[in-house]
Design goal:
The complex is a heterodimer of chains A (252) and B (187). Chain A is an all-alpha fold. Chain A is 66% helix and 0% strand. The chains are: A mainly alpha (252), B alpha/beta (187).
Chain lengths: 252, 187
């Protein structure tokens, strides 16, 4: 595997963590109750921390004066390699916790593979992050169950959230070029294995939540990993990158 | 013999200098939980000291300190502050050549927290992490561990949220004395 592929793959991991972290951070001060506001903000912090580790590694690999900040703040939407799922708007609480559940389940099984991969730095970040993701997965599955098997209103919201989000989950498991190139070359992420584990976990939680699994025939969106994003990402970047673009090189 | 300051000299053994470094770091505290030092927390994984030759062959050289530090949580904002505080404390003691490297693997665990640190946490009003670490799994609605209230010592307590005021803590309340408290959760 060449360095460019490794950088692209690392950026993909970083962008996923940063964008969902940014989305979750939008809840800060708006959570339904104080304890859950704190919970979602904690998850946002973990995600942004993981993103920093991946960006630092990508910056080190690329050289050319790249830093974690330049990679996060000075690339445009077309350069971002995050899954579409992570950039979806927060919607209501049901939509946010369902998005987190789908993503944490994916990250949980992905990091389990990654921590055994041949790239030492990616393995170390995955090993470290997996402990945090375990908490996220537990928290988000509990919310899916609480709302799905809750009141008539909470169930309706969870069903709406499934309608809204499900078609963005397929992309997680369709490998793009940089993912294919890592196979058999040390990192060896096998998305088809992750999909089996993901399906099983989602099925178990949905059963407990008395929620239906949508049909296999549903059209799945894709393109995020190759820079083809929903219109949402531009708005996220406009807010997230404003300061760095208006006042270049500003620092804490 | 040239005295760099009253403690560190260039003719000391590396072991002595290492002990001095450790003593200095034992006084550097976690900004979020000020009763804990960076050593109590277990985030300093390795201390290496080397004598470096003087530049240009003059003078007596100096001690180089290399610290391997691991973060508690990836996003913990206290890490940058602690790195800075360690550097400042070492500089105050006369060290000029200080390198701090981040290590991620093996990942930090609350098992690395010192017993003294656990005692200090409890006295401060934060329930310390359990000695025997519960297995952390993603399973939902697990039977919660019985966490002892740091104020009245009752084990009749209840989890409020797995996420608390900082990344490393969970929120609990005591069902006997009714006080809410933080639990430094197993990790």
């Amino acid at each position: 595997m060449d360095t460019k592929t490794l950088i692209d793959y690392t950026l993909h991991l970083a962008d996923n963590a940063l964008i969902i972290g940014h989305r979750n951070s939008e809840w800060c001060g708006h959570g339904p109750i104080l304890e859950q506001d704190i919970a979602i903000t904690n998850i946002a912090l973990d995600m942004i921390g993981q993103a920093r580790n991946f960006y630092q590694y990508a910056a080190q690999l690329s050289g050319e004066g790249a830093t974690e900040d330049s990679l996060a703040y000075l690339r445009d939407a077309i350069d971002f390699k995050n899954n579409l799922l992570t950039e979806l708007p927060n919607g209501d609480w049901a939509q946010t916790v369902l998005r987190q559940f789908f993503f944490s389940t994916y990250q949980y099984f992905l990091y389990q593979q990654l921590q055994n991969g041949a790239d030492k730095q990616l393995a170390a970040i995955a090993e470290k992050s997996l402990k945090e993701v375990t908490y996220h997965l537990r928290w988000s599955s509990e919310w899916v169950i609480r709302l799905g098997d809750g009141t008539e209103e909470s169930k309706r919201r969870m069903l709406d959230a499934i309608d809204e989000i499900w078609s963005y989950t397929g992309e997680l498991f369709i490998p793009v070029n940089f993912e294919l190139l890592t196979i058999g070359d040390g990192i060896s992420i096998d998305l088809s294995m992750i999909k089996i584990s993901w399906d099983k976990k989602v099925k178990a939680v949905f059963e407990e939540a008395i929620l239906p699994i949508p049909a296999d025939t549903i059209w799945m969106q894709s393109g995020g990993k190759e820079g083809k994003h929903t219109e949402q990402l531009g708005f996220i970047l406009a807010e997230m990158q404003f300061l760095q673009r208006a006042y270049p090189n500003s620092n804490w | 013999m040239e005295i760099i300051n009253k403690h560190i000299t260039t003719d000391q053994t590396p072991d002595t200098v290492k002990k001095i470094v450790l003593a200095i770091l034992e006084n550097v505290s976690d900004p979020e939980v000020p009763v804990l030092s960076v050593i109590d927390l277990g985030i300093v994984r390795n201390i290496t000291v080397n004598i470096t030759p003087p530049s240009g062959g003059r003078g007596v050289g100096s001690w180089e300190v290399l610290l391997s530090v691991t973060p508690t949580y990836t996003g913990c904002p206290a890490i940058d502050v602690m790195n800075m505080s360690m550097r400042m404390a070492l500089m105050e003691a006369g060290f000029t050549n200080i390198k701090i490297e981040q290590v991620l693997s093996p990942a930090w665990t609350t098992n690395w927290m010192s017993d003294a640190g656990k005692e200090k946490l409890k006295a401060y009003g934060i329930a310390p992490p359990q000695y025997k670490q519960a297995v952390c799994t993603p399973d939902s609605f697990q039977q919660e561990e019985a966490i002892q209230c740091p104020l009245c010592n009752s084990c009749h307590t209840e989890l409020v949220s797995q996420f608390g005021s900082t990344a490393c803590k969970a929120l609990y309340k005591c069902l006997d004395c009714k006080e809410p408290f933080d639990y430094f959760k197993c990790h």
